[in-house]
## 1
Amino acid sequence: MKEDRRLPHKRDGLQFLTSKTAFVIFIVLSYALGYFSAYYNRQPPQQPPSTAEVRTVKSTNSQGCSIDNFRVTTRCGDLVPPELIRRTVIDRIFNGTSPYSDFPPPHAAKYLRPKRIKGWGSYGAVFENLIRQVKPRTIVEIGSFLGASAIHMANLTRRLGMEETQILCVDDFRGWPGFRDRFKDVALVNGDVLLMYQFMQNVVSSEYSGSILPVPFSTGSALEKMCEWGVTADLVEIDAGHDFNSAWADINRAVRILRPGGVIFGHDYFTAADNRGVRRAVNLFAEINRLKVKTDGQHWVIDSVKLT
């Protein structure tokens, strides 16, 4: 036999090419190339970017549409009779027990001043003017702080012979960030400012605990629930946030709990905060609902409210 003089690595390569393994690899590669070729041939051709002009479509009645978007259409529950409103609030919020029972609680008593009443615009003539006009059985105050205006209204109703009038004070009683820079005597215990307890202490010291009830929640959640429960008012005062968004929300929620023939009013109509945010909110509400805004001192007044 002739001696095989081929180099070892060439001889091994030829043996591999003639083996079954090489044949299988060849078949797999052929199949893969065919698959990818068919896939790319099936792809639709790329469309060039559209050159069509994009136009902004304007409403033919933009003013009407914008006003409709602002309307609030919430409907409240069946009206609770005025003589049952205090009991309804105590049952719904305080589990049937007056918050003044066994007041003050031991852990807070040592921090409270006998009386610490403070407010802004709380003694204006508008309060007596409207109480004489409306003769309210129920008053709802949005934003009470330490209770100056609520106590003043309680004093007026009693003096004018309206002993049964109830005043519901909606406030979360948290103040605002930094308010203790001016009211350091309102205690802070483990991060909890005792503003509601001081409010209640002021009410008790003034002997109006039978006429004034705190509703210690945010204005939004409290007014929503009062509407749902059918708790309404003859007179609503709004004196909480001074920015447009807060005032706008408070007005639109509060008007839903206003009894027919009632009056809604508020403070800070001339305050410059948030580019006169309160005034802008009041004026927009009046414009949308075709109502007139009156002023009485620093207060705005809208009466004969009948929403469409």
## 2
Amino acid sequence: MSEGESKFGFKDMEKALETLKLLEDHDMQYRKLTVRGLLGRAKRVLTLTKAEEKLKNINEAIGVFEKWLEDNGGGASSKNAKTDNEDKVETVPGLGFKDKAAAEATLSILAERDPDYQRLAIKGLIGSSKRVLSGTKNEDKINSIKEGVQVLEDFLEKFEAENRIKENRAYLAYAVVSKLPEPKEDLSVEFLAAYGGSKAKGNYKHLRTMYPKEDDTTSWDIVRNRQIAKLLEQIKSEEAKLFDSESGEPTDLHLQLIHWAYTPQPDKVKAYVEKLAKKTPQKRKPESSNNSNSSSANDSSSDDSDDSVPKKKKRE
């Protein structure tokens, strides 16, 4: 490990900014991979940390990394599916900070959305407000903006204090979900069609502005979070297992969860999918042979049929 790499870290905002500075000497792909890796580690550390000061410092570092990734097309979370697509993601409409009412409306719009997006959006608005304030001279406007920003800052402070980021349900990549049995529930079928469809193309960020056919007021990201919450509660109340102890395949209830692009054990699910992929070629060989035999049998049957036609004609 080089001297520069040994200085990478996420203990606080200053360390995160220093890390980004050190990474400027590397190519963009390396920078994105490193930042994603640090984000993943930081979020794991958060789940084990109880000291409020440490939580606050690490959360600030996470905010720096997430903002950098968002600005550089690298996605908001190392745990989420890769979204380095060139397609432009629509902004969730209605977010603002011009006054207290606008800020409260913003919090209402963000309610039930992914916690990592809530934090990212709020921090982005607070940052934008500072730029707007620096160019505003009207005292009434300044006071209104400050009142709006205060609402957002209060929310963010509570968000960090309660460590709500732990409630984030990172998206399982569509490429993984699509290799497992298809869902039976119509809503799950429609969700996956949207997630892997021509607009989203596996980029979960698009789901924030996409809606089910029967509900044009509740976006797919909110629908997803509601469904996941129900299933997790059912799994908890039934003390249900996530994997079959013998085959290692996801249980039916776990599969329902996966159909909403979420699993508490993504690595194990990915390993199972990889295992399936390795088995597939071995299973197809005898099928190919059978198909060949079947084809030969069909050809033979066809030949017999052809032979019988002229015979009948001769008899006539």
## 3
Amino acid sequence: MDPRAHPPRLVIDPSLPAEISAELRASPHLLHMARRGRRMERTFNPALLIVLPGFLLLIWVLTNTEGMIVAGVGMGLIALLRWAATGVSNTTARRRLKLAYEYSAHYVLPQDLDYPCSRLLRRAQDAVDRILAADVQRAGLLDSVNNRVSLPEEVWQIGTRLAKLSSMHAEHGQIVPQLMPSALEDAFKPYSTALDAAWTSLSKRVRRLEEYAMQVRKADEVYHAHLRLEALAARTPDYQALIADTVRDDLARAHIRELAAQAAQVRKLFEQSIDQARQTAGELLRTPLV
């Protein structure tokens, strides 16, 4: 395992209500507990039944009855505040754990994936992050609204299928012997082929996402150049006047035409980059995972 490789992030079904999604994201450790089938145990420390009376007895011996009463009241208040704080925290945790069980089919944890599937999901997440963070996306030059909806859905669909594939990989490895008679290899081959086909399909899907991210990055680069050119274009008359004042008329006209041609070329490249990114996105989203 590559120590530099980052694990994938938690993936939550984007169709869930926002408040449910927020609750699930707030306590990922509870999602892990639910996945392992664990429950929260009620916390009570029986040592308090011995320590607290013993402490009060010590206060009474060292001081007097009045001191013991004051200490008892103080200890009682501290215990009450601690109990209240712990109670609120436990109530919240229990509610979230209940949601984790209730919506267990609506999230994918990194632990649900084997290493190859984990890396593939992370690649998909990274590609979507690059697309949504691009300046052309933020500027609304792509199908920004559709991207914000369709791309998280795409990651969710990929994540759920990778989780299922990981589970079936593990099951397949337990059932199929590593060493088997050659006469039986053909009987097991269709099952291995099915797993390989699913992996190939998901890998292609992630590569398409990465291709889209690459097109968006190229569009971003041209967009930045376009913005700089627009800033210069606002001062075109100043540059034209400078050329006209300092060079001969024929040469001045040639320079002015060159300025206009360069501006048109960058604008054309920008439009082509945006069109290419949109086309790549269209090809990706026209073939949804089913």
